[in-house]
Design brief:
Mean pLDDT: 91
Protein name: Retinol dehydrogenase 1
Strand order of the largest sheet: 3-2-1-4-5-6-7
Helix content: 55-70%
Number of strands: 7
Shape: globular
CATH class of one domain: Alpha Beta
Largest sheet: 7 strands, parallel
Oligomer: single chain
GO molecular function: oxidoreductase activity
Keywords: Membrane, Oxidoreductase, Transmembrane, Transmembrane helix
Radius of gyration: 23 Å
GO biological process, one term: steroid metabolic process
Number of helices: 13
Distance between the termini: 60 Å
Order of helices and strands: HHEHEHEHEHEHEHHHHEHH
InterPro entries: NAD(P)-bd_dom_sf, SDR_fam
Amino acid sequence: MVSTDCLAGLSLEILLCHPALTCVFLLAFLAAVRWYIRDSYKVEGFGQKHVFITGCDSGFGNLLARQLDRKGFHVIAACLTEKGAADLGAAASPRLKTLLLDVTDGSSIRKAVEFVSREVSERGLWGLVNNAGRSIPIGPTEWMQFEDFKKVLDVNLIGVIDVTLHFLPLLKKAQGRVVNVASIFGRLSLTGGGYCLSKWGVEAFSDSLRRDMQHFGIKVSIIEPGFFKTNVTRLDLIDADLKRLWTRLPQEVKDSYGTTYFNDYLKAQDFSMGILCSPDISKVTRCMEHALTAQFPRTRYAAGWDAKLFWIPLSYLPTFVSDFVINVLLPSAKDKRNI
């Protein structure tokens, strides 16, 4: 057997015998070191900065609000429910402020802007985190009606755009940050319904916003989480809504899928979600925090091992490869008719 020392010596000899290869290796190493050092630089004055976060009743938004509060930021946390706001307020310092916000309601957004404007005064808003979102209705496209798409798009995409446009003047004052929560579903469309559409839209909106706002000192980052255990991925809610969608289908459509398709779909979904969903949502909020505190925030943050090592690499492969993988994960319809 060849020893490790021999292999190391052989590799070194190869590099020394090929100056061009040595230069490439050294340049790559130096670039990696420079990137790591640059990535670690932080902005100063957390105690003078205000951050507004949507969707703070639970999940990523709730944890991020408490995380930034402990760092000394002035956090303004928007919740959909009074209970969510009360629970978060009780778990944080008096510095953290809460308000009620429905991102699909223009008047609710305007009230939030007025509240935040009073809080930030002339300093402006340092950070806007568009985190509010929903996943259901989600499932096969044929099971959907137009209203099912609209429910999700109104929150996940139109809500993000509306909130961002209203807060841009305050962000320009502070030359602040926008952090938009997309998903690996914004790279690969794994299922029907409005969720994947909305996340692709968030990716596109964020890219155009970043290019337009860079002239004003505003930096825009996209968070692309993999699968995590939050209300968005609660199987009881998803399964119950899938049952609602299946029940209302005409019998002819049900027959085209086969008698076992619905149960097979639920089993496949529950199995894959059980394997993929991580309970450690701090992997996502650490990315959000970096986007808000780094001197040089990244354009995109892949959060979770599945996003980094599986879904995002898969999105770069030819379409037939991703189609094959998704077909393996989900059952096939049993329609035997000749088409």
